[in-house]
Structure prediction request, 706 residues.
Amino acid sequence: MPINNPIDFAASCPLPIQEYSHVMLAHGGGGRLTHRLIETMFVPAFSNPLLAARHDGATFSVNKSRLAFTTDSYVVHPLFFPGGDIGTLAINGTVNDLAMCGARPLYLSAGFILEEGLAMETLWAVVQSMRQAANEARVQLVTGDTKVVEKGKADGIFINTAGVGLIEHNLSISPASVRTGDAILVSGDLGRHGIAIMAQREGLSFETTIESDCAPLAEPVLSLIRGGIEANCLRDLTRGGLASVLVEIAEAAGVQIHIDENAIPVREDVRGACEILGFDPLYLPSEGRFVLFVPASNADRALGILNSHPLTQGSCLIGRVAAASSPLVVMRSTIGGTRIIDMLSGEQLPRIC
Amino acid sequence: MPINNPIDFAASCPLPIQEYSHVMLAHGGGGRLTHRLIETMFVPAFSNPLLAARHDGATFSVNKSRLAFTTDSYVVHPLFFPGGDIGTLAINGTVNDLAMCGARPLYLSAGFILEEGLAMETLWAVVQSMRQAANEARVQLVTGDTKVVEKGKADGIFINTAGVGLIEHNLSISPASVRTGDAILVSGDLGRHGIAIMAQREGLSFETTIESDCAPLAEPVLSLIRGGIEANCLRDLTRGGLASVLVEIAEAAGVQIHIDENAIPVREDVRGACEILGFDPLYLPSEGRFVLFVPASNADRALGILNSHPLTQGSCLIGRVAAASSPLVVMRSTIGGTRIIDMLSGEQLPRIC
Prediction:
């Protein structure tokens, strides 16, 4: 490998290279290894306060406007699955990252990496899905790029979308705003996206098809904010699932999080599929669900707003934030015991988004 | 291929599918096929005035601020080449697209798609290059994403960067602003990036190593604007080279472009390499060069400003814009004949950025 400016890697890179000398699938899984890669490589390299906020997107002011800016690449396999495809995912995923910053999504970019030999019909279908999803989420796709690589050097279609949104309130929505006593809500049943992908990938069929929950979340989030809800932190429950998200927030906020397994909404068919496939619903990705931290006094009103919106019906309270000497996520199990929750480790669900 | 919402592709897709039923490398080459894919698939699907401007980025107002927003994916092969690597390219390429909108680059996002098994040392080297390039271009990388795909499903590292910039003037920089009589300038010698990549890829060595011209162009462009130059159109000379860019602008502006082959700056070593490798310098990509359309009365002053900046020394006048019944690019050759210039067709230089 010809590196122009050779760097003493072992001396300069803070990653424990003895352990992780090569990129593994789990580095992209949204769990512990993804977290470690970000913390030890990307955050120090590009050191700046915006990146250090460790949020779903960056927020900054330009003149007097507060903007949010975010990006995600989509490498989901297979490209088409019950309830969506890589195109719907690429629009909704980035719309949702803007929503999690409390921003109204305005404009999206799209960068396509196509594999030589891809059927033009497949690309066309994906582009139509993107168009439809963008219309539904009320965003405009305004700039783009297309690259093609040789057959065997990619896998059909990879899409990156970045998004710009406008923040029209004075809330500071971030892990740093989470407070002891906050109520923790989720916006509906968990894990359907993960099961939809895995079932499609493995050729499994259940009694009824489990469809991805992929959906644009800006409308319900903006309804909360317009309704005066003090949203302290918002996070969509994608890679790594509820468990990884809660651990990340607990660590970033320096708090203890207590959740109740009985309160976590998982559909019976999803629970059944988890048993067959050997998954824990706590780590399953959803692409249309988020977790919300609000002052306890706001919880009922927030649930009222969410449950009146079609995309967030089934929202419920799952736990609360407690003071902590060390950050921790603790779950009271269905049988009354307690269990300490860690981030996803290993590669439970590669390429689910 | 299980498509959820089957679409009558043949009836709905405006591409001539008999001819192009599959994606070919040339669809990503920046020439005629890329152009056709954009015009017949992406622009109609996402139909909006910003996309229809066919510029290097979208420009729009948020409250009273004019912003530019752009994206590019980088799939260059090999990852490291004389004068740069995929990391420098990923920063400078997007910085330059913002500069071509006349914007001051502010913030960048980065989306990594990594192949399982990539040496962590390689990623570290690329990240260090990105850090250095971002510092030199005075932009902050503020948000990012990492995905990992299985070994054999990508090629080492693909990077997408998107960028947000601020437009601090009232010029309308776009093909639509090009006027009959405009002078056409280029910001230095052409084609070094293309030759650097091809020589590295093919294992060729010349008497002296030809290094990529990859460089951030925001500073010289902002100097022009601060200097009162009426920049009607700016475009960086990447995929497809000078020829493809001029044809695209001629078609978008509905003008005839006359250039003089004798005036086009190409270094002797690049010209020699072109002869050996069978390339036409007009179609070679540069990653640190741009073409500038200005009123003829501004030309000398613009050249003065550009030639006083280290990254754009060697800028010169190469032609002018003429009225036309049909858009065309005409070149007076070194031997005095005239030649009609078309966009790059086929796949002269796949994966050069």
